[in-house]
């Protein structure tokens, strides 16, 4: 057996063991499992144990598959009609939650001496709220279907879509696309056009295929078809000049409208339990603890965290005319989670961010993700809003937050579960 293959097997074993153990520990202290997986990468990476090389091409490729599965899950979890149901308030929260952090982030990073595309990548990492984390915490607190919960989900859907379009633009810039108004507008139009085209065409072609897969009554059929669609659209997205993750996200949007969505979500969740921790661990392994120990790295990380908290918190007050718990909305919008990590990894892989800047972005992601769950719990306890609630297992929340469970028999047979 070649030495590099043996090293890969040992690295994968170490990743899965450390990620799952530290993910479970994170859950025990009330935090999402993703934080434990990031810490596992830090411990296994060059800064501590030197078991995991984040620059290894095979691990990087496996991590990229994890990103595609994660974006497929985000698309499966995204109901575009949610924006229409809560209307203008969610739109106001979502747009302010993108514009304010991005604008302030640009000003702050440039004031700290960052040049070139680095301020753009750092500011872009501040834009998208983590649907997985926000939805899971609100569900645990029995606030998911309240007015505030619906506004948060609608706003998170909107700023995730806008964030992915920004990511597509940033990916083009990192890849060498000229920074011109026409070039940026063209990239935006390609991303939007691809998503719209995928929804329209996929809405006609995909349902019959999924019905056929469901009739086969094979455990792997629905998951295999969903994964093939995600990989295929990711490849087409890259071919037309957009980001591959836009394709995986579009596949999730198409599959969201199918009756087999619940079964697809659970099938891809099982696959994600292998690939997604690899992505988070590889990201964590790229952290240079030495860079965070110096004043400049801490200053950038602290500034980004402050902007990330304040920008999203203020967005909760954007629909000032609506009688709601604006503080709860603002706090629920704070977690960045997996989407911020994708921005950071893109900047590092493209050579736009150095190790210190990448570690600073990761620090921002961890701080914003850590602070929101206990803050939301405090607000709901203070207002006597907590009721016992058992969240539905599986899906995006399970991959990000942890707490795995098993689907009902109906979901495994391709039927839509209650509430879906």
Present the secondary structure layout:
Layout: H1 3-28, H2 33-44, H3 57-77, H4 81-111, H5 118-124, H6 131-140, H7 147-174, H8 181-216, H9 221-239, H10 244-256, H11 261-285, H12 289-293, H13 295-315, H14 326-332, H15 337-349, H16 355-382, H17 396-401, H18 409-412
Helix pairs in contact: 1-2, 1-11, 2-11, 3-10, 3-11, 4-5, 4-7, 4-13, 5-15, 6-7, 6-16, 7-8, 7-14, 7-15, 8-9, 8-10, 9-10, 9-11, 13-14, 13-16, 14-16, 15-16
Question: What are the key terms here?
Answer:
single chain; mainly alpha; disordered C terminus
Overview of the molecule:
The protein has 420 residues and is mainly alpha-helical. It has one domain: Na+/H+ antiporter like fold (Up-down Bundle), CATH 1.20.1530.20. Helices cover 74% and strands 0% of the residues. The protein has 18 helices and no strands. The chain is globular, with a radius of gyration of 20 Å.
């Amino acid at each position: 057996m070649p030495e590099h293959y043996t090293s890969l097997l040992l690295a994968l074993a170490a990743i899965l063991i450390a990620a799952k153990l530290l993910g479970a520990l994170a859950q025990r202290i009330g935090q999402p499992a993703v934080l434990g997986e990031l810490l596992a990468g830090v411990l296994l990476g060059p800064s501590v144990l030197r078991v995991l090389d984040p620059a290894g091409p095979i691990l990087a490729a496996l991590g990229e598959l994890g990103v595609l599965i994660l974006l497929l899950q985000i698309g499966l979890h995204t109901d575009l009609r949610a924006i229409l149901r809560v209307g203008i308030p969610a739109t106001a929260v979502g747009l302010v939650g993108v514009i304010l952090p991005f604008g302030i982030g640009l000003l702050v990073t440039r004031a700290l001496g960052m040049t070139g595309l680095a301020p753009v990548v750092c500011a872009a990492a501040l834009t998208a709220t983590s649907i997985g984390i926000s939805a899971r915490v609100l569900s645990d607190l029995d606030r998911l279907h309240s007015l505030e919960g619906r506004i948060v989900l609608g706003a998170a859907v909107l700023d995730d879509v806008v964030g992915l379009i920004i990511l597509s633009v940033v990916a083009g810039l990192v890849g060498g696309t000229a920074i011109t108004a026409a070039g940026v507008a063209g990239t935006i139009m390609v991303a939007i056009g691809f998503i719209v085209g995928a929804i329209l065409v996929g809405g006609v072609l995909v349902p019959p295929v999924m019905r056929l897969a469901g009739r086969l009554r094979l455990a792997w059929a629905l998951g295999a078809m969903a994964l093939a669609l995600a990989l295929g659209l990711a490849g087409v997205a890259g071919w037309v000049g957009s980001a591959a993750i836009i394709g995986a996200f579009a596949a999730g949007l198409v599959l969201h409208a199918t009756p087999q969505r619940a079964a697809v979500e659970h099938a891809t969740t099982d696959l994600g339990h292998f690939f997604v921790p690899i992505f988070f661990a590889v990201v964590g392994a790229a952290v240079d603890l030495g860079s965070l120990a110096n004043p400049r790295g801490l200053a950038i990380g602290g500034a980004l965290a402050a902007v990330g908290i304040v920008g999203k918190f203020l967005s909760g007050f954007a629909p000032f005319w609506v009688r709601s718990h604006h503080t709860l909305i603002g706090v629920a919008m704070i977690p960045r989670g997996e989407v911020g990590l994708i921005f950071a990894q893109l900047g590092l892989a493209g050579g736009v961010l150095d190790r210190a800047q990448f570690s600073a972005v990761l620090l921002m992601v961890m701080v914003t993700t850590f602070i929101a769950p206990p803050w939301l719990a405090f607000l709901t306890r203070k207002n006597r809003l907590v009721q016992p609630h058992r969240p539905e297992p599986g899906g995006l929340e399970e991959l990000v937050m942890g707490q795995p469970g098993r689907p009902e028999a109906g979901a495994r047979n391709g039927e839509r579960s209650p509430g879906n």
